[in-house]
Design a protein that fits this description.
This protein is mainly α. It is built from four helices and no strands. The radius of gyration is 14 Å and the shape is flat.
């Protein structure tokens, strides 16, 4: 988990933004935190031997498709 967050700058900066002004959501700037959480899930579970099967089931859940836009 720590390695996935620290090795991917987009995830790291999305979940732990640097001090200063925030991205304007009014003008479409900045991604939602859920998008970064989804990218982190993909980095952790996609294609893994131990949890890959459970992750595939989660991918196939039609109720959750709206959350998986990333």
């Amino acid at each position: 988990l720590v390695s996935a967050v620290t090795s991917d700058d987009a995830i790291r900066k999305g979940l732990y933004p640097e001090p200063g002004a925030n991205a304007s959501t009014k003008n479409g700037g900045g991604a939602k935190t859920t998008e970064h959480h989804w990218a982190l899930c993909k980095a952790l579970f996609d294609g893994r031997k131990e949890y890959g099967c459970a992750f595939e089931i989660a991918l196939g859940n039609p109720k959750a498709k709206a959350l998986r836009q990333a």
